[in-house]
């Protein structure tokens, strides 16, 4: 019954474009986000943050703040003992939530205050006296590896390597030197990408309430309320079961809300003040003190024979991790050449520390940067070879049976179909005018599964509550409702999907890695099938026949066999109505670790026009082709494609963190950190391909992340074709384009 | 059974690209590898994945490893 293998079944409701269950609340303002919960007696929590990029904290004197009328609690690291049990990752989280002996970046929290109102809290912050000893800082990923660079985290320094170099992950196979020796044409280039933020419109916000008996509640905007619960409980020495975390509606996360940033502090303030504490980050705090993505610096070398066969490819990319190590370089190394079948390939991802905020995931983390370098180089290779860029990619495309660069052999995958769809798309035949250029690029993301737990409960009227633990970041409630309706054979409108709090379900992993519909979908399928078993048993009781004589079809129990086959069917509603007399509530439950997540590939086409006088780039037309495995709700799948592409466009053209010589962030506001809005972009065309994932009953693959991977490369190629000059740095903002044009003229 | 290693996991086995080890489940595989290469000890806690014939397992350590399978030790992938 719990076989995850793809069944190839036909669907009745899955694949239809039903109304989204959260739409009305979101457009009318009824939806409750992180900042929309209040509690009697609540206090306002604010953070004091370091104005220095790197400084020793010699002393914190909070005495005057504590005495200010209306201040109920002040927290520093002295109030947060190390309860991490030697877990270095959790210790990093503790230190990032509040600086211990050193402030490691501009905006690093050094103290927290809870007061009766915002005005009092702000006054209190000013009364906290912090004595800093400024230290040398480094914010550039290449400068961080200079011999004289200050060491960001001495506890991570190891003998034999630079103190800011955490590790190098190398992937690939074959003989790279032999491969390049065989190449007729080699293109070798270096590239850079700027640091960007996920740009979610909703800032981090929570309402924390801890009782003297050790129990607590947290209402929070998050991608993973179970992970938040576990981390907060451990950091504060609470029993996990005593902390109940409820996820609010989420106004975007994209990876930035997979970690705690201030929530443990809100809980600590509440515990100390014995009152609820609400904390909402300002936009500047979000930029400075949550988790942007890495900046990078990379070297790419690709060689091919005259016929276009790529015989060798090498990439080394240095990923700026911020002040705490992550696996960003590793992920980049794994994804670099995933779209291609290259006999000799080597990709090295390097993790480097800098005095910048702790990097968090941003939608297919690390892959877009590497794709910028690889896809730009492949395009240049196509020009050197005199080959069409799509044909060059198709000639070297990965297929089922190809050895993936990070090890395993590919099963059925969608990169070739997406490239063929690009090649045949009408967009490729649209005429281009002056100062206009077209670019294509490919992208890949792994997707993941993880721990999942779902409850399906049938009400007395036959309507269904499905409770899941994966936060809905983009359509999961609708998709899971469709899946439950499909399995039960009932109308979608009779299913209501809810995100349960942490007390109502077993552990669910964070909604990241495009796992939500894959994992919770699988759990929903099996929970529904268990409920069907119960429904059949109840029908048998009602009919007074053996349970083996009952089947389930089209939402009803059917008696089968010569003896009972003429009994009229019992609908789900009929059986539910009598549940009280046949054994009580009818439900199905499933918990498991979903594995076998299917990878997803995408190919994009973009047309741009570049104004040679201002350097401004306008996106004229954009097409996304991506493999979804099975699109449960096509509107949402298309929305994920479009949203990811829109973020990639902003990253490619405008967005970057700008740090001054003093190591301080210069553009921590949407005015100066310019993300695209609707008026900046054309409608993004989408084409969903469905190459089923063999490890999911419906063939589902995660779709949310992959389409942020190609845009940097696609736009880089398009802009380069438009202006006749290759761009090597992202964002390709107007000043950079004008500088490239000036350089070309000179 | 040959177990291939990718990326920074190789640092923990003296840079080897593959090792020979017998195991019937992922749990046995990890236990035997850690016995032989103690530097791998922190990986189960902090993040490792095992690919068996192309399917990546991040958590299911009771998963059986059929004889003749292609087995890779990989970093534990995270997403956004």
Account of the 3D structure:
The complex is a heterodimer of chains A (746) and B (80). Chain A is α+β, with helices and mostly antiparallel strands and 746 residues long. In chain A, 28% of the residues lie in helices and 24% in strands. In chain A, the strands form six sheets. In chain A, strands 3-5-1-12-9-10-11 form a seven-stranded mixed sheet, sandwiched between helices. By secondary structure, chain B is of the alpha+beta class. Chain B has one domain (2-75): Beta-grasp domain (Ubiquitin-like (UB roll)). Chain B has helices at 26-36, 43-46, and strands at 2-5, 18-20, 48-52, 55-57, 71-75. Chain B has a five-stranded mixed sheet. Chain B starts with a strand and ends in a 5-residue tail after the last strand. The A-B interface holds A 87-89, 167-171, 198, 254-256, 258, 327, 330-331, 333-334, 349, 360-365, 406-411, 445-451, 512-515, 593, 595-597, 695, 702, 705 and B 4, 6-8, 10-11, 45-47, 51, 53-60, 63, 70, 72, 74-80.
List the helices and strands and how they pair.
The complex is a heterodimer of chains A (746) and B (80).
Chain A: H1 23-28, E1 43-49, E2 55-61, H2 63-67, E3 71-75, H3 88-97, E4 102-103, E5 109-115, H4 118-127, E6 129-134, E7 165-173, H5 176-182, E8 185-193, E9 205-210, E10 216-220, H6 225-236, E11 243-247, H7 263-273, E12 277-280, H8 283-289, E13 296-304, E14 310-320, H9 328-335, E15 345-352, H10 367-385, H11 389-395, H12 415-424, E16 436-445, E17 450-458, E18 464-468, H13 476-488, E19 495-499, H14 516-543, E20 550-553, E21 556-559, E22 570-571, H15 572-577, H16 579-582, E23 586-594, E24 600-610, E25 617-627, H17 634-653, E26 684-689, H18 711-723, E27 729-730, H19 734-745
Parallel strand pairs in A: 1-12, 8-27, 10-11, 14-15, 18-19, 25-26
Antiparallel strand pairs in A: 1-5, 2-4, 2-6, 3-5, 7-15, 8-13, 9-10, 9-12, 13-14, 16-24, 17-18, 17-23, 20-21, 21-22, 24-25
Helix pairs in contact in A: 6-7, 9-10, 10-18, 11-12, 13-14, 17-18
Chain B: E1 2-5, E2 18-20, H1 26-36, H2 43-46, E3 48-52, E4 55-57, E5 71-75
Parallel strand pairs in B: 1-5
Antiparallel strand pairs in B: 1-2, 3-4, 3-5
């Amino acid at each position: 019954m719990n076989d995850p293998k793809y069944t190839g079944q036909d669907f009745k409701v899955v694949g239809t474009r039903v109304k989204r269950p959260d739409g009305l609340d979101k457009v009318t303002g009824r939806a409750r986000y992180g900042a929309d919960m209040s509690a009697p007696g609540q206090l306002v929590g604010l953070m004091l943050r370091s104005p220095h990029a790197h400084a020793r904290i010699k002393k914190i004197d909070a005495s005057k703040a504590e005495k200010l009328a209306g201040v109920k609690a002040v927290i520093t690291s002295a109030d947060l003992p190390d309860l991490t049990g030697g877990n270095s990752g959790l210790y990093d989280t503790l230190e990032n939530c509040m600086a211990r002996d050193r402030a490691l970046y501009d905006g690093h929290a050094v103290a927290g205050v809870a007061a009766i109102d915002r005005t009092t809290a702000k006054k209190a912050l000013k009364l906290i006296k912090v004595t800093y000893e400024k230290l040398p800082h480094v914010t550039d990923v290449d400068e961080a590896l200079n011999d004289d660079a200050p060491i960001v985290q001495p506890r991570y320094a190891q003998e034999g390597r630079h103190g800011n170099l955490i590790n190098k992950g190398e992937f690939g196979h074959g003989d790279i030197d032999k491969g390049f020796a065989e190449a007729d044409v080699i293109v070798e280039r270096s590239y850079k990408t700027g640091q960007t933020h996920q740009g979610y419109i909703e800032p981090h916000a929570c309402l924390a309430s801890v009782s003297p008996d050790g129990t607590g509640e947290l209402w929070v905007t998050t991608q993973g309320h179970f992970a938040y619960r576990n981390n907060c409980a451990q950091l504060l020495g609470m029993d996990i079961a005593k902390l109940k975390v409820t996820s609010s509606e989420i106004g975007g996360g994209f990876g930035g809300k997979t970690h705690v940033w201030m929530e443990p502090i809100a809980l600590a303030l509440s515990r100390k003040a014995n009152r609820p504490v609400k904390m909402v980050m300002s936009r500047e705090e979000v930029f400075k003190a949550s988790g942007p993505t890495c900046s990078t610096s990379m070297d790419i070398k690709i060689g091919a024979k005259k016929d276009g066969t790529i015989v060798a490819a090498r990439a080394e990319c240095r990923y700026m991790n911020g002040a705490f190590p992550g696996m960003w370089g590793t992920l980049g190394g794994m994804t670099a050449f995933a779209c291609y079948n290259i006999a000799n390939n080597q990709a090295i991802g390097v993790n480097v520390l800098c005095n910048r905020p702790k990097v968090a995931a941003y939608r297919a983390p690390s892959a877009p940067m590497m794709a910028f370098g690889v896809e730009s180089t492949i395009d240049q290779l196509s020009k050197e070879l005199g080959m069409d860029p799509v044909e060059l990619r198709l000639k070297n495309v990965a297929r089922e049976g190809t050895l993936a660069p990070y090890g395993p052999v590919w099963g059925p995958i969608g990169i070739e179909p997406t490239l063929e769809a690009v090649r045949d798309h009408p967009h490729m035949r649209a005429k281009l005018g002056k100062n206009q250029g077209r670019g294509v690029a490919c992208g890949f993301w792994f997707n993941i599964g993880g721990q999942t737990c779902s409850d399906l409960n049938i009400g007395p009227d036959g309507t269904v509550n499905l409770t899941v633990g994966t936060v809905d970041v983009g359509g999961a409630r609708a998709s899971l409702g469709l899946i439950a309706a499909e399995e039960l054979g009932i109308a979608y409108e009779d299913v209501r999907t809810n995100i349960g709090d942490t007390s109502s379900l077993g552990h669910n992993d964070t909604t990241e890695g495009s796992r939500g519909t894959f994992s919770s979908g699988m759990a929903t399928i099996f929970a529904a099938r268990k409920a069907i078993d119960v429904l059949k048993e109840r029908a048998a009781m009602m009919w007074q026949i053996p349970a083996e004589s009952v089947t389930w079809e089209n939402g009803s129990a059917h008696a089968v066999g010569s003896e009972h086959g003429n009994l009229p069917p019992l609908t789900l509603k009929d059986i539910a109505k009598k549940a009280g007399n046949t054994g009580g509530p009818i439900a199905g439950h499933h918990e498991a670790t979903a594995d076998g997540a299917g990878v997803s590939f995408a190919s994009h086409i973009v047309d741009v026009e570049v104004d040679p006088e201002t350097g401004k780039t306008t996106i004229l037309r954009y097409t996304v082709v991506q493999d979804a495995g099975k699109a449960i709700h096509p509107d949402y799948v298309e929305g994920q494609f479009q949203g990811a592409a829109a973020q990639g466009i902003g990253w490619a053209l405008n967005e970057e963190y700008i740090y001054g010589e003093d190591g301080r962030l210069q553009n921590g506001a949407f005015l100066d950190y310019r993300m695209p809005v609707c008026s900046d972009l054309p409608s993004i065309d989408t084409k969903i391909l469905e190459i089923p994932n063999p490890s999911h009953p419906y063939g589902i693959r995660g779709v949310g992340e992959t389409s942020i991977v190609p845009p940097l490369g696609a736009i880089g190629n398009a802009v380069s074709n438009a202006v006749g000059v290759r761009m090597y740095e992202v964002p390709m903002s107007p000043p950079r384009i004008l500088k490239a044009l000036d350089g070309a003229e000179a | 059974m040959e177990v291939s290693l990718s990326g920074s996991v190789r640092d923990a086995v003296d840079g080897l690209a593959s090792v020979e080890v017998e195991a019937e489940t992922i749990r046995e595989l990890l236990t035997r590898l850690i016995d032989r290469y103690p530097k791998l000890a922190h990986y189960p806690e902090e993040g490792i994945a095992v690919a068996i014939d192309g399917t990546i397992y991040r958590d299911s350590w009771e998963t059986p490893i059929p004889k003749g399978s292609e087995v890779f030790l990989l970093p534990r992938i995270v997403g956004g």
